[in-house]
Structures are given as C-alpha cells and as structure tokens.
Write a sequence for this structure.
C-alpha cells in the first residue's frame, strides 16, 4: 500500500461531459471495458478522444486518472517513488499505481510522446497478469478488478518520428477516431460554443477547407476543438474574421502562404 | 538505359577542366534528369565544346542546366542548346555564357517551359536587332525578370532597341538600367502581381476549396484579347495581372482560377456546338458561366462575392463601350449572379427570373445553359442588337476564361496520354 493515501472520489467525473457519438464507439468501448481490455484511441488532435474517455468514465461510474505523457517522463513518474520529508522516507504511488489500486480508468494521453522504455512498465498490467510490480518498494500490485488502461495517440505527424513498439501495440484493442461528419460536428460546435447553427456550419466548412490541405502544406487540419474556440469568441461578440484568424489560422501554421490561404478560406464564408 | 560518365571518356580526356566540373554536376544532373535527359545534357556539353568558344561556356552550361531542368523540365535542354547555337553566329562566347547564366533565374521567374522558350526566342530576336544591348541586359536579367513578365521585358527591350538603334552609348546605358527613360519604361511595364510569386498560394487555395489538385500554368498574356483558358485539364492564366480597382492581383488570380476550377468541377459532359454560330456559342457560354458560378457560389459564398465585385466594377466603367449591347450583357451577367439586381426591360427581367426559378433544380444540367443561352441570343437577335464576335469576346469580365472547355470537355481517362 502507498504510505500516502489517495481519495479515489476526487477522480470521479462529476458532471456528464457533452459527447456526441459518431458511430458505435460507445457500445464497443463498453464491451471492451466489460472484458477489461486495454484500449487504444487513435485520431487527429482535437477530435474528441479525451472527451470520449471522460464521457465513458462518467457513464461507467469509474474514477478517471489522466496522465499527459511527455518525453521527460520516467517509469517512476508512472508507478511511484520514495519521497523525503521531515519524518523520513515515504512511498508515493504514481498515477498508474493509484489507478490500479482504486480500480480507476488510467488514461495515458499522447502516449507516444513518452520514451519507449518508459511505456514498457505498462506491459504486465495489460495482459493476463494484470499486475504492476513496484521494484523499488518490493511490492506487486494486483490490479483492482475495475481497473482499465486506455492510451491515445495521433497516428499522423507523430508517428513519423515516434511510434509504439509492436509489443506495446499488440496489448490493446483499438478505436479509430476522426473529425465527426459535417452535421454532427456542426451540432457539437453549436452546443459547445453557443453560436447558432448557421455560424457553426460555416466554421465547419472552413475546417473542411483546411483539412483538404493536410499533407499538402499542413501537418494537421483545423480540429473540432479549434472550431469550438472560434465559436466561443464569436458568441462573445468578436468579429468572425478576427475570431477565426486568432483561433483557426494563427495557431495552425507559420507559413505565410498557408496563412494567406486559410484567411482566404475564412473570407469565403465570413465576408 | 543508364548513362555513365565513363562513356564520355574520349571527349572528357581532351578537356580536363570540364571533366572536373562535370564530375561535380553529373550527380546533381542525374538526380533531376531521366537517362535520355542526361544523355542530351552530356551531348550538349560535347556540342558546345566543338563550338570552340572556350571552356568557360561549357562549364557554365554544365553548372546552370540542372537548375533550369529542375524548374522547367528536361525537354528544355535541346531548346537552350539550339538557342546557344543560333546566338553563336551573332555574338561572342562570353555573351552566350551570360545567356546560360541567366537561364536559372529566367526559369525560376517565368515558371514554365513554354515561357522559357519564349525567352530564348526573345534573346535570339534581340541579338539580331540590338546585339550590343544584350550583354548589359543579361547582366541585369534577374532584376528585370523579378519585376517584368516576358512580354513586359520584350516591350521594355524593344523600346530601348528602337530608340537607340544608332546611339550605342545610350543603348548600353539604357540596358544597364542607368538612364531615366530605361527606369521609367521599366516602371511602366511593371505589372501588379507576377504569377510565379503567388503560384503556391493559388495552388493551396484551389486545393482547400475543392480538395483536389489543379494544374495551373502561366501564359504570356501580351495581346489585347487574351483570355485565360483550360486546355488538357490545365488552367492557363496570365503570367501577371494588375490590381483591378480595390481587388488585388492575387484576388483576381483567385477569381480566375476559381471560375475555371468551377467549370472543371461542375461540368459532366460537353455541350454540342453542332449548327451553332460563334455568337450563339458565346451566349450559351455566358449562361454556362452563370450556371457553374451558381453552383460554386452555393458552396463558397465568398467566391461569389469576389466575382460580383469584379463584374460590378466593370459595369461602372462601361461608358465607352464599343456596342450598346455590351453594357446590357454585363448587367445581365450581374443579374444572373444576384437576383436582387434589376433592369428596366421586361423581356430581360422575365428571362433572368426564369433562370433563377429553374437554376436550383437544373444546376447540374448544362443543357439548361444551352436553352437559356439560345433564348438570350434570340432575344437580342430579334432586336437586331447582337454585336460582332470580336466585340462580344471583349466583354469586360476580367476573370472569365474563353470557355473552350465548355465545348471540348475532356473526361479524365488514365489511358489518355498528353
């Protein structure tokens, strides 16, 4: 057991997150959870992967522990470490150990950002063993029956530089995510940002124009998240051209020609 | 087939200076050229050696040609060699060398093999009229071509050559860009936006809108009646355009390319030109323009707005129209785009109303354009007010193409070779 106790209730998702299903992903995920199958969510940035995990955690009534992975992350950051304080040395569980103990869903966001040797620590938790060895502490955690591991990554530009080992990949069931189809995305943008359907539809149209340029000058298209940002600014009274430029053009690229094109695409719908 | 440097040992053993350079440029050339192109490249070097104008000329050719090929394709090698051979009877080896030195810059700024051929022809013609101006001009060619189109360069050079045909000192001053009239002429010929400067933006724009690539090529637009055109699925646009009122050159390019792309995206079959007079074809083409613009406008409202701004701008400048029908036709084009625009003419009002009533249901049917176009033609024919074809084709809508695509629609076929 950890020397520092953790309140599992703090990890519960308190309000139902808004999530618009785009296919049968909810049913598939529920089936996977019932089998306690580790899950891998693939999809472009800002398409709703993290929101989906939150929604499922809420729906299943399980605590959710999210870890934003990065390349400086070590195995200790996931499983735990000894900490020094005035009373001596104490063991502090990492988020993965915590989740395994309390039966939470542990969500490793952008997992390919972590080094491959770090991600190997999840292996014993993701096969029939469902255990997590804490070597430094000499303890073997048996995962709580409700524990599930979920990872996400963007198979586009990230996988050019980084990828998961096959031995890691082949421990997960996978769900592919993409930007929702036009009508669903319009509904999402309208609901999340508070703009009316017409404006939301125009924002979605602009994003489609940018997505046409993915791989032809742009690494990624405009995400649903950015559309929501633009909608939020517009609903606060900001001029649509300025709002789109601020949220959908400037963050996306530094290429002046591409910016010019995206600005022209915005003007095609908001002139 | 592969081309090896060793195969040219006989020729290279006589000229060690060239061998050293060629060893450096050969790999670069092999990357950008096919074996046939490489063979032409090496044979070209051999031919220039045989010309007997010094090794520097051959070295320059070897160094510059891969850069030219990179921009305009390897077919241009033979044209460059032919141009050099022609020049050799008129001027010194040093000037031919300068011509080769100018080619990468010309290729980069003209951005098209056909235009580069035009440049070579211009150099040849210029050498025969004002050979003494060639050297100073080639020394400034980069500066000139960043500001002028090929036709602008031709006019600028022709002015200088004619003005100082017998005044050699001033001729050299003019082509050295040192005289006031040389700079004034340069300023006069300078166009708003060169195609090569905005080509990338235009390609991005078309891809963003329609999610597919279009091939856009610059074309020398140096005659009055030039219209953009679509041929072999390539959009041919002017090599430079000026701003039109408040509409920037870049937006004019967007309007032009957007209009032509609309033809390609919203046409599924050609319209038969059988038994039609050229004037009737013009009227049908005008209605076909309105149909494809309607479809594009529904998808991209901003594009419609851009087109409308260009039509209304020309409508305002119609006092000096060659024929009384032309301002009316321009106004009809505007009415077809915007149903709120009116005219004090019952027949035309009824015609335009009919178009707007039916267009939504028949937007994908170019036979609709045929029938409506013929109706409009008869409307003016009954009034005996159909202008001549020359006047009709000069309709002042700057972004529209010549509509040859409407009649010669080419369905995409993988087996067709162009």
């Amino acid at each position: 057991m950890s020397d520092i106790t953790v309140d599992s209730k703090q990890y519960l998702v308190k309000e139902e997150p808004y999530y618009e299903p785009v296919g049968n992903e909810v049913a598939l995920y529920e089936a996977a959870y019932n089998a306690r199958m580790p899950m891998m969510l693939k999809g472009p940035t800002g398409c709703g992967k993290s929101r989906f995990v939150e929604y499922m955690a809420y729906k299943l009534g399980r605590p959710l522990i999210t870890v934003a992975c990065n390349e400086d992350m070590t195995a200790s950051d996931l499983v735990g470490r000894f900490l020094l304080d005035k009373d001596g040395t104490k063991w502090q569980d990492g988020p993965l150990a915590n989740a395994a103990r309390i039966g939470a869903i542990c969500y490793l966001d952008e997992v390919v950002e972590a080094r491959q040797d770090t991600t190997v620590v999840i292996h014993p938790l993701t096969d029939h063993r469902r255990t997590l060895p804490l070597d430094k502490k000499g303890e073997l955690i048996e995962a709580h029956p409700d524990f599930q591991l979920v990872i996400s990554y963007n198979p586009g530009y990230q996988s050019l530089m980084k990828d998961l080992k096959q031995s890691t990949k082949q421990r997960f069931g996978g769900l592919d995510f993409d930007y929702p189809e036009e009508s669903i995305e319009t509904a999402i943008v309208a609901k999340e940002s508070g703009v009316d359907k017409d404006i939301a539809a125009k924002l979605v149209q602009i994003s489609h124009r940018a997505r046409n340029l993915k791989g032809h000058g742009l690494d990624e298209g405009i995400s649903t998240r950015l559309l929501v940002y633009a909608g939020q600014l517009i609903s606060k009274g900001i001029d649509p051209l300025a709002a789109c430029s601020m949220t959908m053009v400037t963050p996306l690229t530094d290429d002046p020609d591409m910016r010019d094109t995206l600005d022209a695409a915005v003007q095609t719908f908001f002139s | 087939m592969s081309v090896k440097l060793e195969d040219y040992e006989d020729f290279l053993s006589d000229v060690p200076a060239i061998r050293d350079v060629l060893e450096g440029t050969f790999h670069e050339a092999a990357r950008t050229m096919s074996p046939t192109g490489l063979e032409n490249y090496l044979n070209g070097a051999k031919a220039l050696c045989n010309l007997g104008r010094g090794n520097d000329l051959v070295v320059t050719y070897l160094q510059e040609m891969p850069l030219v090929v990179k921009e305009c394709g390897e077919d241009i090698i033979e044209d460059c060699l032919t141009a050099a051979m022609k020049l050799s009877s008129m001027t010194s080896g040093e000037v031919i060398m300068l011509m080769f030195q100018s080619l990468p810059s010309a290729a980069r700024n003209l951005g098209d093999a056909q235009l580069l051929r035009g440049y070579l022809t211009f150099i040849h013609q210029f050498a025969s009229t004002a050979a003494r101006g060639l050297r100073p001009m080639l020394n400034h060619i980069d500066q000139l071509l960043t500001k002028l189109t090929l036709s602008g360069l031709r006019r600028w050079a022709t002015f200088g050559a004619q003005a100082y045909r017998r005044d050699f000192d001033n001729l050299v001053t003019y082509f050295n860009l040192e005289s006031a009239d040389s700079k004034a002429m340069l300023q006069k010929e300078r166009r708003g936006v060169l195609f090569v400067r905005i080509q990338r933006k235009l390609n991005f724009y078309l891809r963003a809108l329609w999610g597919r690539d279009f091939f856009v090529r610059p074309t020398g637009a140096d005659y009055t009646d030039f219209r953009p055109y679509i041929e072999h699925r390539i959009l041919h646009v002017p090599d430079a355009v000026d701003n039109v009122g408040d509409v920037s050159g870049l937006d004019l390019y967007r309007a032009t390319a957007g209009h032509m792309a609309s033809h390609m995206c919203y046409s599924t079959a050609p319209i038969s030109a059988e038994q039609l007079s050229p004037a009737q074809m013009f009227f049908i083409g005008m209605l076909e323009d309105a149909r494809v613009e309607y479809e594009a406008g529904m998808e991209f409202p901003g594009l419609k707005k851009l087109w409308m701004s260009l039509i209304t701008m020309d409508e305002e400048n119609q006092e000096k129209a060659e024929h009384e029908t032309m301002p009316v036709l321009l106004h009809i084009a505007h009415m077809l785009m915007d149903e709120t625009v009116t005219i004090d003419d019952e027949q035309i009002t009824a015609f335009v109303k009919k178009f707007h009533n039916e267009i939504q249901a028949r937007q994908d049917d170019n036979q609709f354009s045929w029938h409506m176009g013929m109706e409009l033609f008869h409307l003016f024919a009954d009034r005996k007010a159909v202008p001549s074809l020359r006047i009709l084709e000069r309709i002042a809508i700057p972004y529209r193409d010549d509509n040859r695509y409407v009649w010669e629609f080419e369905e995409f076929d993988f087996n067709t070779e162009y």
Observations:
- Residues 287 and 369 of chain B are 5 Å apart (CA to CA).
- Chain B touches chain A at residues 200-201, 204-205, 207-211, 213, 250, 254, 300-303, 305 (CB under 8 Å).
